[in-house]
Amino acid sequence: MFDQLITRLPHLKEILAKYADIAEPITVPARTILLREGEVSKRSFFIEKGCLRVWFNNNGKDVTCQFMFEGQVVSSADSFKRNIPSTFTIEAIEPSIVHVLHKRDYEAMMNELSHDNTFLQELVEIIFDRQVYYMREFVSFIRDTPQERYLNLLRERPHIAQRVPQHYIASYLGITPVHLSRIRNKVAKENS
Q: SUPFAM superfamilies from the entry (predicted)?
């Protein structure tokens, strides 16, 4: 993340490098919970290597919201910013290396960079891109059938199908693993 920002904002290299050094790299095995639903988030995670799953519990059933991969940042934004309990869990589903930025360091960085218009514009672009992504996901979940959502996933984000266990993909699509298996078989027959 910091390397990407430094590339885009070379005039802020010294400030950004300082915070890159503060972000603590940790190695975690698969199935490690980095933030549990109901806890207040005090950390943000930049993924150097691996995959994280964001999910919540709905009456005893895991519902996957998103998958995050190398080069992405994930946190419970509302919890992190407002000091309220997180509505979801963040879990490593592969052995992962993540850089942890603590809230106090994030706040210091934002205070130091908030005067720079170029940085603020870049931040707005990042937030806008993420908002557009979430709106597309929301509309697709309402409009598209499970098979269409699966085909969209294969077309737009094939790395998910290659790296993520099928039961998590089923949860992400809002279907059972058995239903996903049927869809996969049907798609395979149509393509053969």
A: cAMP-binding domain-like
Phi-psi map region of 60: left, alpha, beta (phi>0 left; psi -120 to 50 alpha): left
DSSP per-residue codes, 18-71: HHHHHSEEEEE-TT-EEE-TTSBP-EEEEEEES-EEEEEEETTEEEEEEEE-TT
d(CA 88, CA 55): 5
Position 166, amino acid: Q
> CATH assignment of 2-115, given 2.170.130.30, 2.60.120.10, 3.40.50.410, 3.40.50.740?
2.60.120.10
Tens of pLDDT, residues 168-180: 999 999 999 999 9
Tens digit of pLDDT for each residue in 79-100? 999 999 999 999 999 999 999 9
Domain spans in the chain, listed from the N-terminal domain onward: 2-115
Q: What is the mean pLDDT of residues 104-125?
A: 85
